[in-house]
Amino acid sequence: MADTPENNMKIVQDFFAAYGANDLDGIAAVMDENVRWHIPGRHPLSGTKTGREEVLAFFEQLGVAGFQADPIYFGADDTHVVDIHRGWSNVEAKPNVDTIWALVYRIEGGKIIDATNLSADQDAANTFFWSQYQLAPVPDRLAQD
User: Fold this and answer.
1) CA distance linking residue 16 with residue 104, whole number of Å
2) How many CB atoms lie within 10 A of CB 38?
3) DSSP string, 78-123
4) In this structure, is residue 140 part of a structural domain?
5) Do residues 39 and 58 lie in contact, with contact meaning Cβ atoms separated by under 8 Å?
6) How many angstroms separate the CA atoms of 40 and 4, rounded?
7) How many CA atoms lie within 13 A of 50 on its CB side?
8) Domain named SnoaL-like: which ranges (predicted)?
9) For residue 88, which of 97, 110, 120, 132 sits 20 to 30 Å off, Cα-Cα?
10) Cα–Cα distance for residue pair 126/6, rounded to 1 Å
């Protein structure tokens, strides 16, 4: 599949369809094995996820938090797609988030190779993700060799 604006947009639309269905295999199908996904903020899920396995683990956790997304706009060229979407969660007894997000995807060879996620309200995103995910105590949090 050639990297045309139309094909690139279809890849991201397929990603959204898979995400909406909580279909991790469908999400994996549109990602390069070495994909990099950049999550801004200062919360337990922030940081750059490297490789399909880490990115899928991130999306699995979003599903646990009941995080949903509704696309608003897509734009594309031969190398990039931009999406704007409403992202929210209505988890009971927790702070919620309901804001606009923009993602910038880089597409190569018919696969997402890089994505940067930007929130219109990073403070609300940080608060929400901290309410959903607690860190383990320090000895358990440190990497083991």
Assistant:
1) 14
2) 16
3) SSEEEEEEEEE---TTS---EEEEEEEEEEETTEEEEEEEEES-HH
4) no
5) yes
6) 28
7) 1
8) 12-113
9) 110
10) 34
CA 104, CA 123: separation in Å to the nearest integer?
20
pLDDT digits (tens, 9 = 90+) for 100-122: 999 999 999 999 999 999 999 99
- Cα separation of 71 and 81, whole Å? 13
Query: Residue 54's domain is classified under what CATH number?
Result: 3.10.450.50
Contact 24, 17 (CB under 8 A): no
Residue 141 resides in a domain: no
Number of domains in the chain: 1
Q: What is the chain's pLDDT, residue by residue, as a tens digit (145 residues)? A: 688 999 999 999 999 999 999 899 999 999 999 999 999 999 999 999 999 999 999 999 988 888 899 999 999 999 999 999 999 998 876 788 999 999 999 999 999 999 999 999 999 999 999 988 887 787 777 777 6
